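Illustration 12: ABC transporter substrate-binding protein.
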Amino acid sequence: MLRRRFLAAAAAATLFAGLTACGDDAGDDSGGEQTVTFWHSMAGANGEAVNHLVEEFNKAHAGKIKVEATFQGKYNDSLTKLKASVQSKQTPNLVQVFEIGTQLMVDTKATVAFADLAGSAGIDAASVEPGIAKYYTVGGKLQALPFNASAPVLFYNKTAFKDAGIDPEKPPTTIGELAEAARKLKVVDGGKTTRYGAVASIDGWLVEQMLAAGGVQYCNQDNGRSGRTTAVNWDTPELRGIVNTWAGLVKDGTLLNVGRNNTDASAAFQAGRAAILPFTSANLRDIMKGSKFEVGVANYIRPDNTTASGVFNGGAAVWTMAGHPKAQQAAAAEFLKYLASADAQGYWAAQTGYIPIVKAAADTKAFKDTLATYPDFAKPGAELSAAAATPASSGCLMGVMPQARDKMNDIVESVILGKTSADQAITTAQTAMAEAIATYNKSVGQ
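Figure caption equivalent — predicted structure in token form:
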């Protein structure tokens, strides 16, 4: 019956709506070396940093614990493989899942809450930064260990600001201020735009964060924090303002539209083709190193006519899958303890640009050395710490968040391309989401 529930739920959502507990506590529970399987989605330099952490852990626990880290592709690819692993009763011990998969993972009932592991493993769950932990806290429990935490920030070309007569120490705080600055920053030479005022990829995450920054809830039931989400909260003047302003900037040639390609947006900014870039802090190191001008890093913007509330973290967390031998689970918890340590987090943040999830990491040599070179590395963490403890700045919890993000992309894209009005696009998407949410909730017995 449990597997049938999983398969029914899988048909309801883009990836899967629910998993089911698989396996049991049978298996090697001896005192020999325990093997811990860890699935992750970190590639390139980030993947190398993960491998280094795993190697260091394995060296320190030789003969007792061996972590086998395996790259499973992008987050969506990893979720698809997780579905298959449940069906075959061969789940990993640990799996990295992006933040919008949180409600979905809780609904699987196939995980062990990090808070339940922490005490026996000697992990101080309270040491996890509250501004990061709040996203993954469901039912009063921290469900997974935040690992690669990021925040939305505004990158801007300080040199261009000075040339345009804009105070580089006073970056935009709202989308309206961004539009005003971008129009001043745009440079046209001989009828050709040589520098756009801004560049942005069509990414629903950017919209989610902008709404949160202005205290606007993305979905109902206090962003899914006080009850099961039943609808998105998109028919608002704030969202219409964001979409219309974005489309207007593209239409008048002020904002460079690169479609849904985040890499192209970052590349255009680093090349000096655009002076402002709303983006993730996860690429802070690359952007600072790759730009030949003075880069400014500021807190993220919010909708017009709103009061600053605060953003929530992006990135992913490491989840513990249930149904494995107790000794193996204890070994997995030991690895989580290491990942949450100051040394591991200091190294991870220094190598990648992600935010340390524990305060003590700021005192490590690795992170201090990085701050000496890139002082702005401290800003994303400070931004999350300063966010208000409200539902809006905690992020929306619902099982079909991956679908919601795609629908938000559709809204922005259709208005930018002139296919429909903001009102029409939002109404259509909100109706589609109501159906998707209802189907998902029914599939998980809610």
